[in-house]
Amino acid sequence: LEQEMIYYIEKLDINEEIIRLKHHLKFFSLEMKNKEIKGKKLSFICQEIGREINTIGSKANNFEIQSLVVNMKEELEKIKENILNIL
Questions:
Q1: 10-21 burial string, b = 16+ CB within 10 Å, else e?
Q2: Which residues of the chain have pLDDT under 70?
Q3: Largest CA distance in the chain
Q4: What confidence tens digit (pLDDT) does each residue in 39-61 have?
Q5: Helices (H), the chain
Q6: Count of domains in the chain?
Q7: CB of 31 closer than 8 Å to CB of 37
Q8: Contact at 8 Å (CB) between 1 and 47?
Q9: What is the pTM of this model?
């Protein structure tokens, strides 16, 4: 029973995804400051950001977090549209 509880608690824990999301966002920011912006690279980083956002959304059982996930997805789509102008 204890192992089962630990398993489910880990399934609901989004801390790891938040840490990875922050790293991806920092990397994206650094790439944006690069004088030679590479659209493909930014696109790949966006894919990773999207994966983390989706994982957070699937793990979250909280309305506030779900709402934030929807907002993050919306903003990410705007970023992806802008990247298409670079490609």
A1: eeeebeebeebb
A2: 6-10, 87
A3: 55
A4: 899 999 999 999 999 999 999 88
A5: 2-12, 15-33, 39-59, 63-86
A6: 1
A7: yes
A8: no
A9: 0.85
Total count of residues recorded for the chain: 87
Q: Would you call 62 helix, strand, or coil by DSSP?
A: coil
Radius of gyration of the chain (CA): 16
Whether residue 21 contacts residue 49, with contact meaning beta carbons closer than 8 Å, is answered with yes
CA atoms of 52 and 56, how far apart (whole Å): 6
Boundaries of domain holding 30: 2-86
* Contact call for residues 52 and 27 (beta carbons, < 8 A): no
Within a 10 A sphere around the Cβ of 31, how many other Cβ atoms?
A: 15
Residue 32 CB partners (closer than 8 Å, separation 6+): 42
Q: Half-sphere exposure of 61 toward its Cβ, with a 13 Å CA cutoff? A: 5
